[in-house]
Design brief:
Muramoyl-pentapeptide Carboxypeptidase, domain 2, 4 helices, alpha+beta, 4 strands, 110 residues
């Protein structure tokens, strides 16, 4: 599969995962905290922090999809899309794709 096609598939997977969930409400920080709880249920151990006036950052101590991410970092696109839909914000993914993957997403208001 071409990289561009795989990316679109991963984004569609993320949207589908989000389709059964209500979009979170409240401040950006509150919405990201709610999304972090979803990630924790999937096996991540997350923290949420302010990004010095430029949004909110969610960090994961590990990646619930780490085995798949090692094969293709594009798997993170599914998670980014899921988080974007749930939080209703722009999400920039800067995950660590090394031998021990960990999540890092930065959220800003759309």
């Amino acid at each position: 599969m071409q990289e561009q096609d795989l990316e679109e598939v991963m984004r569609a997977v993320g949207r589908r995962l989000a389709s059964g969930q209500a979009q979170f409400t409240g401040s950006l920080h509150k919405r990201v905290k709610a999304a972090a709880a979803v990630m924790d249920q999937l096996g991540a151990v997350t923290t949420v922090e302010s990004a010095n006036g430029s949004g909110v950052i969610m960090r994961g101590a590990g990646c619930p999809l780490g085995v798949a991410v090692k094969e293709s970092p594009l798997v993170c696109r599914a998670v980014r899309e899921l988080l974007s839909v749930l939080v209703g914000a722009e999400v920039r993914e800067t995950c660590d794709h090394s031998a021990r993957p960990s999540c890092r997403f930065q959220f800003t208001e759309s």
